[in-house]
Amino acid sequence: MRGGGHARVPTVLGPQYSREKNYSAVVVQPYVDGAASVGRQTRAIGKGYVVMKVVILCGGKGTRSYPFTEYFPKPMMPICGTPILVHLMRIYASQGFTEFVLSAGHRKEILDDYFHGRFPDWRIDLIDTGSDADTGDRIKRCAALVGDTFFATYGDGLGDINLHDLLAFHKSSGGVATVTSVPLRSQYGTVVADGSGRVFEFHEKPVIPDQWINAGFMVFDKRALTMWEGHNLESEVLPRIASRNALYTYLHRGFWKSMDTSKDQQELERLYQQGLARWVTQPAGPALETPVEAVMPRMADVLSRTAING
Fold first, then answer.
1. Domains of the chain, CATH where assigned
2. Which of 35, 42, 122, 233 is the most buried (most CB within 10 A)?
3. CA triplet 26, 258, 201: central angle to 5 degrees?
């Protein structure tokens, strides 16, 4: 979505700085995963500079990914050995945002174990927001850990989002919340025919360009919390903010995909193995230095054990 016309962050101090306190203020060295200097973030020593926090929803039970999620949080589903959650965090870290708030719940102990002692150049706060909390509640319960403006996203979606363009769009809109939207891709193939029923062609799972869906990668001003009503982010909180003319959407036409099922996992792994992982914005270096298999079995093993034990 490199949408034209979006306002950009002032570049006097470089694209990651702004004299407005709600922009990110970070200094990053080149992102080379596994190196000693990976994504090191420092606070700028100037009046009004802050660091953007990234809240990631990690606490749901992920029933569509059962039986994997009976044992593990859904964001721990692996892509070629590394949890999708880590792939997601690297999207933010590669663009300079390395302070994370993981809003956990279901099987939080797995996240505690996995992140203990890993990624020392990132700041990771792991918060128990309740095993049965809804998405809106999980964000609100992290309010004490975020600044005046913060990112929030789902723990199971990846995209080649330009986060600085997203942030600049949010600031220029004047709203209190921005949601990234992507065109709806049909889960079915479509048939093209004339009035007599003669078929011209088939389109395999086409993109429906005039229908947009919520892809996460959100930005909130903290004052949005004063408009927070309800528990579910999608059906209650965001519609109520929209009713106050304070919600905007950033239209992204680039890559985006969520991992809801084992089939989605296989597709993302295929893209990664073929070098087509468009969410990887920087060289990954030793990308599997913390393989998920070290603390959990692969999906096939979970399915196999479930079948045997069932």
1. 53-180+210-309 (3.90.550.10)
2. 233
3. 130
Structure tokens at 12: 């006097």
Question: What backbone phi and psi angles, to 5 degrees, belong to 165?
Answer: -65, -40
**Residue 99 CB-density burial (10 A; 0-12 exposed, 13-18 middle, 19+ buried):** buried
Q: What angle do CA 5, 6, 12 make, to 5 degrees?
A: 115
- How many whole angstroms separate alpha carbon 300 and alpha carbon 218? 33
Query: How many alpha carbons fall within 13 Å on the CB side of residue 90?
Result: 26
Phi then psi for residue 257, to 5 deg, are -155, 140
pLDDT value at residue 61: 75
Q: Which two tokens stand for residue 83?
A: 């949890």
Q: Tell me what pLDDT residue 111 has.
A: 93
Q: In sequence order, what are the beta bridge partners of 157?
A: 258
pLDDT mean over 253-275: 92
Is 131 within 8 Å of 59 (Cβ atoms)? yes
Q: How many CB atoms lie within 10 A of CB 208?
A: 12
The predicted-structure confidence for 206-243, as pLDDT tens digits, reads as follows: 778 788 999 999 999 999 999 999 999 999 999 999 99
Q: Which of 84, 91, 247 is nearest to 175 (CA)?
A: 247
